[in-house]
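Repro case for the chain-ordering regression, as requested:
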Amino acid sequence: MIEVKDLHKTFGTVKAVDGVSFRARDGEITGLLGPNGAGKTTTLRMLYTLMAPDQGQVLVDNIDAAVDPLSVRRQLGVLPDARGLYKRLTARENIDYFARLHGLPEALLKTRREALIQTLEMADIADRRTEGFSQGQRVKTAIARALIHDPRNVILDEPTNGLDVMATRALRQFMLQLKNEGRCVLFSSHIMQEVAALCDRIVVIAHGRVVADESPQALREQTGENNLEDAFVKIIGSDEGLAA
Amino acid sequence: MKTPAIRSRTFITVFLKEVRENLRDRRTLISALLTGPLLAPLMFVMVLNIALQREFDKADKSLSVPVIGAEYAPNLLNALKAGGVVPGPAIADPEQSVRKQENDVVLRIAPDYATSWRKGEPVQVELIYDSSQRDANTTVERVSNLVEIYARQQGAMRLVARGLSPGTAVPVTVARRDQASAQARGVLMFGMLPYFFVLTIYMGGMYLAIDLTAGERERQSLEPLFANPVPRWKILAGKLAAICAFSTLSLLISLVAFGIVGRFVPVEKLGMELELGPRFSASVLLMSLPLIVLLAALQSMVAAFAKSYREAQTYLSLLLLVPAIPSALLSVFPLKAQDWMYAMPLLGQHFGIMQLLRGDGLSMHQLGLCMGGSAAAALLAVLVTAQLYRSERLAISG
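-- result from build under test --
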């Protein structure tokens, strides 16, 4: 479970995150929705302790990120906005590197890696160097790398960015599978359709603040709009930066 | 919670991954294992060989020297011929010819040579040359010496003819006793050798240092890497170790190459000795170890400031000039080594290597100072770099 309490982060004079609180539960998919530049990535970066919040608290499985960042990172599987694969290594080697950094014993590493390669249907590219991978192949490799240590909590920053329709569908299936395994899945997106199709809970962020934190159903009722798209526009106050 | 035994794998994991990845990069490999360590010894040997060959050629070969007024001094010419000079035909404008480098030196004998000689008056012969043509200096020296020897012989014979001892005309003689060992004479030529070694270390690690910090940031892989449950300083330690491994390997290749080519340089013909054997290599390597760490940390530090691979490359190329400073300065302003100088990184290695080349050996005290001083600097650089690695901004690429 991931809990965020009153996060603040300022870069120079820009308030990137200005009092964000929400909770992502186990066995649920929580969507962080907002226009570009709303503060989603910065919020997530504070979650996986890449940045320290100016104010506020992050709890992952009740571990305080400020107190024990290493344990927090151990509970998390992270797909950052920047996929950052090592292009001179093969997909397998990329996965192995992170597995060893997590301290996985070699035997366990092998079983987990092969299971992930099978689930993500990437056996055909597993022994190719990642240089020249398509966007979808890159995301698959990065996800396998992020989940190699079997984390309870999964954070995905704009996971479907740049993917084609087939790859997007496969990824959604995969996220549902993670949820059914009882994991806490938190992902950010600026695409409403995606959030609506997947999420048990939607956290809408605009201008560094949470403007709504509801189930899709409740969101529709709250705004009185039947269509989710209209509901979002009403909440955010403009349709700037939102893609249908 | 993980056991400590598993955690300590971080260092070796990062190290192995960086080494493997960079072994697959052709540019890094060529720079670290080929051009970096081999270019210097090759150039060194070529330049030296050419220089030596020229000297020998001049010393042994017969010299062709145009002589103006050869007919006035047949005896002098015979003496010159005996010394290996082949008198050439007179030329119209000797000054111009020398300046144009058509001839190294021209000998001019005045028409009144014979008259004055017979009267027993001092006579003059002119050597026309251009001292800014360093290439010609050996030739000028040789001709001038031959003339002077001839003059001394004739002078002595005149004294003997008048019943005087030739010694009366030479009340004082100078006897030179050069105390330079055969090795020490060689040092004059090998003053740039320490710089070559430092350069090799630097080049060996440079591309790695760029790739592991600025490169990783540019490829945006630092962010996922830092999301792993390992402290950043351990990641840095693994990366530094990979850089050091490459630069050490580079230095080793260079030392071996110098050891091999050192045998083909005919330094002994110059009365020099050059000891580049295994003992020399081992000492240089030992002295350089802390320097290798220091340079790796400095390169990583600089690369961490850069926003991109290119930028880092530019900075590091400029930084490349720094290790040249001690060697360059010392070849212009020779200094006597003081104790504190051994403790200075770069300077200490310079003096240490020079001392080994001179064949004086290095005392434990000097070696200790050299390694201790550089190690302290290396530690400081590593700590500063580790501090830099903790910054939030380091991981964010865009």
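Ordering looks correct now. The first strand of chain A starts at residue 2 and ends at 11.
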